[in-house]
């Protein structure tokens, strides 16, 4: 149920944090090691289904992700970097994403007709026409332009685009406390990823924390995101409008090359 885009979306705001380190990362294995998987716990899978069903009912919300990611040097030493992303969402077709690291700031704005990518530090923006749902937007940006939206799976969980039959193992890990509140803790294995999710209890579940471990790398780098939800946001629809500042230039967004 966890897509590759979720991991990329969590880490996309980290890419500018330490660009020089990327060339020093340890070599990765060609494939994830084949370890014995735990059985698939039906209750853990049902918790994901319940979570997805509830997420699809949310029409207008604000969510902030505080992300911590690891980069691994050639000698195995790990460096940790942080970033944040705030999403302003109005379904079915409006969204604004504000992404921040220590060295970069970016915004993605979608008003239902045009999607704009804005980089204040470079004083440039690019825009393309698009009409469709937020789930369709996330897919189009990734496949056509290689642009990953943070927390993209929020828009596909609970739909046919997020099947649970690819989960290889699933366990209920009990409960944990986050800021003094109890959350249900689940752990999954899916393809090259081990991932954990902490979900609020009750009839309206929300993800509070996500941890992802990349098993294709022997160093097992991990990313973690702590989510803060506002289900009664006060933002106005004007937040989805982009008016370029006077000193900003328009650039062309280049589609990915196809073979």
Please explain how this structure is put together:
The structure is a single chain. With about 260 residues, the chain is mainly β. It has a single domain (about 5-20, about 40-245), classed as outer membrane lipoprotein receptor (LolB), chain A (Clam), CATH 2.50.20. Helices cover about 15% and strands about 40% of the residues. It has helices at about 5-10, 40-55, 135-145; strands at about 60-70, 80-90, 95-100, 105-110, 115-120, 125-130, 170-180, 180-190, 195-200, 205-215, 220-230, 250. The protein has a twelve-stranded mixed β-sheet, covered by helices on one side. A hairpin with a 6-residue loop joins strand 9 (about 195-200) and strand 10. The chain starts with a helix and ends in a 9-residue tail after the last strand. The relative contact order is 0.22.
CATH class call = Mainly Beta
Radius of gyration from the CA trace?
Answer: 19 Å
Uncertain segments are: 4-30
Which bin fits the share of residues in helices? Answer: 10-25%
Biggest sheet character: 12 strands, mixed
| CATH fold name | outer membrane lipoprotein receptor (LolB), chain A
The oligomerization state is: single chain
How far apart the termini lie comes to: 28 Å
CATH architecture: Clam
Query: What would you call the structural class?
Result: mainly beta
Strands, count: 12
Compute the number of helices. 3
Sequence of strands across the biggest β-sheet: 7-8-9-10-11-1-2-3-4-5-6-12
Give me the strand/helix succession. Answer: HHEEEEEEHEEEEEE
Q: CATH homologous superfamily - what is it? A: Lipoprotein localisation LolA/LolB/LppX
Give the overall average pLDDT: 87
Shape: globular
Whole-number tally of structural domains: 1
Q: What share of residues are in beta strands?
A: 35-45%
